[in-house]
Every structure is written in C-alpha cells, then in structure tokens.
C-alpha cells in the first residue's frame, strides 16, 4: 500500500475558507459543564463539523471558550441565560432537541440518524448528567455504549462523538 497523504495545502483547498457564520443546523449545548476546559475542546469539534456552541452566560464560560479556542479566529458561540427557557424556545421553534444521557429510552449512538433539520445536542454535567428539569424539553435521548469500567465519557468526548454522527460524518 502506498497512500497519498494530503498536505495542509490540499486540506485547505477542500475546506471552507473561513469560520462559518451561524448556520443554525447543528448546535452543541453543554449547558451544565463541570470542567471549563471541555468547552474549548468541544468548540474545536464544532468548527470541524460546522456546528455552533451554546454555553451558559457566565464569565467563566466566556474565558473557557477563549482559552480553549485553538483556532484563534471567531467561532459561532451562543450565550444562554436560562437553559430550560432556551431549550423550550428551541423546541417550540421546531428544533429537534437530543439529550446525551444513559436512560432506558435512549437510542444507541450507532442508530442515531443524521440531522436533517435544526438539532440541538444537550450535554449535562460530567458527574450527574442532565438535570431532571431539562428532560421535559428533549425530543429524544442518545446513549454512547461503553464496554470499559467507566460510567461515562467527559462532555467534550461525548459531545464530539454525537456531533460527528449527527453531521453525517461517521
């Protein structure tokens, strides 16, 4: 096997020339993060799949996004004041709201169809998951199967896997 490894120039030529404006098709919403470092990591994934990031409207969240933005160019970030109110408004406007959580009703990640309309991916707290009051605003749940000893993945990893699947890139 003698593969042709694409150069940075090749990659640049086939991708969009600049950061996207808000397309609104796919939004990652880690609204209850425990570790702020995960926000910057998830922002990088959002750029990779053409998604936006919705974060709590808190000074620490803005600093975390700035610190974690390794792209060094503006990215699409929505600031959310009231998570439940924002989720209710997104759903009322016709968005599909998908929560990432371990639950009996959850669909396995491999069975999750790609997003065909505006979709919000709701991510919870690294230890406690989604708060009960957020569950009423979800259209569906997705779980990421695990065979190891851990109970869950961190928000950045879980969000990245779900975003790639919803973007149709997996």
Q: What would your notes on this structure say?
A:
One of its GO terms (molecular function) is RNA methyltransferase activity. This is RNA methyltransferase. The chain is α/β, with parallel strands linked by helices and about 170 residues long. It has one domain: Alpha/beta knot (3-Layer(aba) Sandwich). It is about 35% helix and about 20% strand. The chain is built from 6 helices and 7 strands, in the order αβαβαβαβββαβα. Strands 3-2-1-6-4-7-5 form a 7-stranded parallel β-sheet, with helices on both faces. Helix 2 (about 35-50) packs across helix 3 and helix 2 (about 35-50) runs parallel beside helix 6 (about 155-165). The radius of gyration is 16 Å and the shape is globular.
